[in-house]
Sequence to fold (331 residues):
Amino acid sequence: MNSEDIISKYLSKSATEEEKEFLLQWLGKKEENRKQFKKAYDLWLYTNALLTDDTEMETALARLKERTSPTQKERRYFSMPRFYFIRIAASILLLFATGYVGYQLGNHREPSAITMNHLLTGTDGKGKYLLPDGSIVWLNASSVLKYPETFTGGKRKVYLEGEALFEIKKDKKHPFFVEAGGLDIEVVGTRFLVNNYPQKSRIEAVLVNGSVKVSGDYFTGTKARILRPGELFTYNKQTKQAGLYKVDTDDYTNWIHPKLVFDKTNLAQVIINLQKWFDVEIVAMPELVRNTYMSFTVRRESLEEVLTYMSLTAPVDYKWENDILYLFQKK
Fold:
């Protein structure tokens, strides 16, 4: 199948069920495919906007906003003139475009026992989303969340690759489950974070409030773990080792906000936040971490800009090696 033809047919609502399924799988394969779709969708939205009156445009955006909520970073554009608004609106929608495609693909299928929707974010995208039961999820960059169009039966279950912060609507009769790799995380009503990027060796679960139970394939012969607020559970997929630590949960959830603020903050906390914000692995020597404190704010700056500032204001230098950022004492 030709991807360009299928994108065109999907946007014109003439794609077959087989073509919709192909498009969904194609979008999930790599970031380059999602960028190609973004360009096509941007052109399609802009072209259609020129032929659509203001009322129709506002209605279409309102329908989408019922399910998606852009971060504060994107909201700043809504006061711009209509011509520019159309172009910026396209980028906002495309932050969730592949997830929106998954939603539409699900909606256009013939009725089945379970229709699974797919919400995907690109390498520079993150956003807030409302699940069918009223629970809220913040999805970080390069992440995929799969969930049913309607939760049925005795439990609510979603599947995560990447990182997400969940705020679960309380329902004791229907516990909420997140499957992340080989881990199953069970909650009733709580706020917690799960980190499960396939390319990384470690799975993380951080409990902000409430209570969660962690179980799954990795717990053969051992009991499930019950987490308390402020605890970080980790599991190394390579060494099969698990760990439980007390942490400042803000360091793991600050990425959902429009900016990061550090005020005489220890480098260890800075590193944790930057890893979440930029989706990068950072390694630093213990003595550097212990003795370095920093004050700065990150809004729209690139990682390179942040690193340059850090190296100018503190005795910190850096280098890249095998996609890992190493921080070390400046000589």
The chain has three domains: 1-114, 126-257, 259-329. Confidence is low (pLDDT under 50) at residues 49-113. The longest strand covers residues 156-167.
